[in-house]
């Protein structure tokens, strides 16, 4: 959920506008977008979004945020293409200004000048941003790695970064993702060699490769291997079809003529003539590969001998889901390959050091990563000569004020995540999540009783209904005894003329909850409902 | 959840009796135990449990299963000690027979003779079992690794395994956990060197080490480093205190005199005089380290400069929880170390090959691991000369019949997991879990209405109550409109004299569910309740 506002007097620019995926405890939530209250309150100052690259965690919140912050979007060509796909889906294409910026080109927004600098990442057209402000230059790397032999385009523009650094940079905001990993990240093109080897080893088998939809260079390399070994290519999975189509249209993927075939056409080819490229390398339940593995995909089914390449490393939290897919594919007789079939898109320690050597900033602000990664990054920055006091480990919402003289966290703005559930944006908060958590672990018991108006005589009930608690047929005794407990609680209240509903409800709740705990050591949600008839 | 029954005519012995921890989708479940229907039905044949080692996934279900299958337990000394702890907690000590068996010793159970053979693992006193049956010898490795320099006791008894193999082994059941990893697993004692280095590097700081409660050799090495560097030892976390106390009592841990102090005494010592050994290395929410990291531990709080060693690798599925703990500790200023501080307790590929070289079984039955691990193990077995048709990738519940002539899966017995939730064993099944899943993702809406007997006039309601759906205060309109939708559905039914409750309920459910989906793209559980007054 990357988003950074840079403000000077009456100008604000916003770097990136990403979403994040829900944590395990955010039950039922589809996605999380940033809180942009501060931008809304200062909408007159906001000059535009400058976007570093086309990954969901850098662009995904745009369709939601644009409704409130409708300012122009500036990005490189492929990034704009991917954003346009999103805008189309949300019917926002017509009302959103966007502009393609080339590497080396600068734009002026308010008092800022922003230069887009070529970098490498696991998606083409990634850019770092040199932001020229009246207070000095801010250099934002975005997500980056240093790839001397990229699959598409040129290596990161180290010369220009050196030149910018030489003239003096106030602050460096640099990617921390791989700051715990020593050494260098391998070149993307090293994966192509692995693909060639696998295609050679399994020349007779059908090959299925799963990878990230957005990794167009990875897909290009699969296409290259397919071309060498005379295979047709099938692309499966909605997000992959979307991005790859855009990448082909814009010339970021070279697809030989007559090579791409529709999934329906697979039956006309033999196994050794086919490679299927698909989403689902992270074990996402609804993605194509997971459905193929579970044998619920309508068009593709695994047969013994198929070779499945997982061309990605599980993102923390996805390990079990990925393992499940590997097990299912294995059980259906597929050979699953997942070693040396992926490289990271992020800079390791030596690359981060190189970035500091070129930029030599006055202030270091580690970004993109968990706290542990930013902390390790801070150690690297210190090693590279940035004084400890000039390194800022800031949190979401912190306002960091920088000048040539000093840097200081001077305030805070609202910054939490806004939960998106279905069409609702922000209507699921902590209370709702806490209830979902409670329900998920213990289920619920509903007690309904009808009381007569004025007299408070019991007219019907108490009836007890439960869901997610126990299988009632096997626990009839328990439920019957629970009813007796509730009856006694009711009698107790009513006999004492204790007829305030709040009191009756809490008496029912307390006594039933005690009884259930004693009998089962469980703690279901108890919901007493009183009707007045 | 390891458990294997071996049967010949009227004799059955059971190897291990483990539990497993719930999968993510087993909402609210505490633990899972094996279905032993087959053993219950053949209780007269069952001669005893023979246990390979004292880990939860090999002994944890005993207290639950013993209630039905009350036969003697045979295991090595530490294993029996740990089992006795469990029996005490469950009040089963008095009624359970158990016997300590030494390495090299054999016992006779029915027609079987079982010899306990020394192995190495991440808990002391691990044993392989040579089971002499009228049909031939079955060799079961249990969980094992080959450690030439173990911390406690002697290396695995490779000589005896060779001797048993030389005489002829019918079937080898061998650990598959690390079958995907090439090479050898490092010796446990290599971790001791890392500890010494860390203790030397951080001589002034307080050191906290988190590891598995059951890894007594690991704890011994921490104690050794503490002794060298003149630190007192505090042990924190209930399961660790239990196991370590047992290990000290039985002589499996050498604790120098006056070295172990109570957590309350920590305040009398300076940072450089202390090491705290604790549970929670897997990020388990209720374990000591997680509570310390979250600053909700009553007795220990992190201060800047503290050094925390995570002496374990995250088990798949726990990565995010571990990362959360690392982030929290880092934010409180602790230095967190987790590299080279752990070795596995399971055999890698070369060790598995060595086992096959010594045992040279007729049949190979890969055990202990997911399908992907067993499949890789099968490839190794084949490489080591076991014919493909003699390798059995069997599933839980499969009945494999072996003779010198042939091996074949000849049947199936009930084998799924029985879910334990609080005191309930097996009363939470698929329906309850499905409800919990539904509730967890979408929450619920309850509709209550009172109808008059005979006339079916609406006497009260419809009232709508929701939990885990939306924050009602912010969605008053939605809920009010929902009430109108329900009223219309009711009127429709009643006006047509469609007064069967089932029909009324499904009409309410369908119309409300349509309305809610249209408005929110959400799918809460809808629970119509009708009261007759």
UniProtKB/TrEMBL annotation, chains A, B:
Active site (UniProt): 175 (proton donor), 346 (proton acceptor)
Residues that hold Ca(2+) according to the record: 28, 30, 421
Keywords, alphabetical: Calcium, Cytoplasm, Endonuclease, Exonuclease, Hydrolase, Metal-binding, Nuclease, RNA-binding, rRNA processing, Zinc
GO molecular function: 5'-3' RNA exonuclease activity; RNA binding; RNA endonuclease activity; zinc ion binding
GO terms of biological process kind: rRNA processing
InterPro entries in the cross-refs: Metallo-B-lactamas, RibonucZ/Hydroxyglut_hydro, RMMBL, RNase_J, RNase_J_2, RNase_J_b_CASP, RNase_J_bac, RNase_J_C
EC number: 3.1.-.-
Domain Metallo-beta-lactamase residues, every copy: 1-195
Enzyme class per UniProt: hydrolase
Cofactor: Zn(2+); Ca(2+)
Gene Ontology CC terms: cytoplasm
UniProt xrefs under Pfam families: Lactamase_B, RMMBL, RNase_J_b_CASP, RNase_J_C
Family in the record: Belongs to the metallo-beta-lactamase superfamily. RNA-metabolizing metallo-beta-lactamase-like family. Bacterial RNase J subfamily.
NCBIfam families: MG423
Protein name from the UniProt record: Ribonuclease J
Source organism of this protein record: Mobilitalea sibirica
């Amino acid at each position: 959920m990357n988003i950074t506002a840079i403000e000077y007097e009456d100008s604000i620019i916003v770097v990136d506008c990403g979403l994040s995926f829900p944590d395990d405890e955010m039950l039922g939530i589809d996605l999380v977008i940033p809180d942009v209250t501060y931008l809304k309150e200062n909408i007159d100052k906001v000059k535009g979004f400058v976007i570093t690259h086309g990954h969901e965690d850098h662009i995904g919140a745009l369709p939601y945020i644009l409704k409130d912050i409708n300012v122009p979007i500036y990005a490189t060509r492929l990034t704009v293409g991917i954003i346009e796909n999103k805008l189309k889906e949300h019917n926002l294409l017509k009302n959103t200004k966007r502009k393609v910026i080339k590497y080396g080109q600068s734009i002026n927004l308010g008092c800022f000048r922003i230069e887009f600098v070529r970098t490498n990442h696991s998606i083409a057209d990634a850019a770092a941003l040199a932001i020229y402000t009246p207070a000095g230059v801010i250099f934002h790397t975005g997500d980056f790695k240093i790839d001397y032999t990229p699959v598409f385009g040129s290596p990161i523009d180290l010369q220009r970064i050196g030149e910018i650094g030489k003239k003096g940079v106030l602050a460096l905001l640099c990617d921390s993702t791989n700051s715990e990993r020593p050494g260098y990240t391998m070149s993307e093109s090293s994966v192509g060699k692995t693909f060639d080897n696998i295609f050679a080893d399994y020349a007779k088998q059908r090959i299925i490769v799963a990878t990230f939809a957005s990794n167009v260079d990875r897909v290009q390399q699969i296409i290259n291997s397919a071309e060498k070994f005379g295979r047709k290519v099938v692309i499966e999975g909605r997000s992959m079809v979307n991005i790859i189509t855009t990448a082909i249209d814009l010339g970021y993927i070279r697809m030989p003529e007559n090579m791409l075939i529709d999934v329906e056409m697979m039956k006309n080819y033999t196994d050794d003539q086919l490679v299927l490229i698909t989403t689902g390398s992270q074990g996402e339940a609804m993605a194509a590969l997971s459905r193929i593995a579970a044998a619920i995909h309508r068009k593709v089914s695994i047969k013994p001998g198929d070779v499945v390449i997982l061309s990605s490393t599980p993102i923390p939290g996805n390990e079990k889901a990925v393992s499940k897919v590997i097990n299912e594919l294995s059980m259906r007789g597929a050979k699953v390959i997942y070693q040396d079939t992926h490289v990271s898109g992020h800079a390791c320690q030596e690359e981060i050091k190189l970035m500091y050597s070129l930029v030599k900033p006055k202030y270091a602000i580690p970004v993109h990563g968990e706290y542990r990664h930013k902390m390790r990054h801070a150690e690297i920055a210190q090693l590279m000569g940035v004084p400890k006091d000039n390194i800022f480990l800031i949190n979401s919402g912190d306002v960091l004020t920088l000048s040539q003289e000093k840097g200081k966290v001077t305030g805070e703005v609202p910054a939490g995540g806004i939960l998106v559930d279905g069409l609702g944006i922000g209507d699921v908060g902590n209370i709702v999540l806490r209830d979902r958590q409670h329900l998920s672990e213990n289920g619920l018991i509903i007690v309904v009783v009808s009381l007569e108006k004025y007299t408070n005589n019991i007219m019907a009930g108490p009836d007890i209904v439960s869901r997610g608690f126990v299988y009632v047929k096997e626990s009839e005794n328990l439920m019957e005894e629970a009813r007796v407990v509730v009856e006694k609680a009711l009698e107790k209240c009513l006999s004492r003329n204790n007829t305030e509903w709040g009191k009756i409800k809490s008496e029912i709740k307390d006594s039933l909850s005690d009884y259930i705990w004693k009998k089962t050591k469980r703690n279901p949600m108890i919901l007493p409902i009183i009707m007045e008839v």
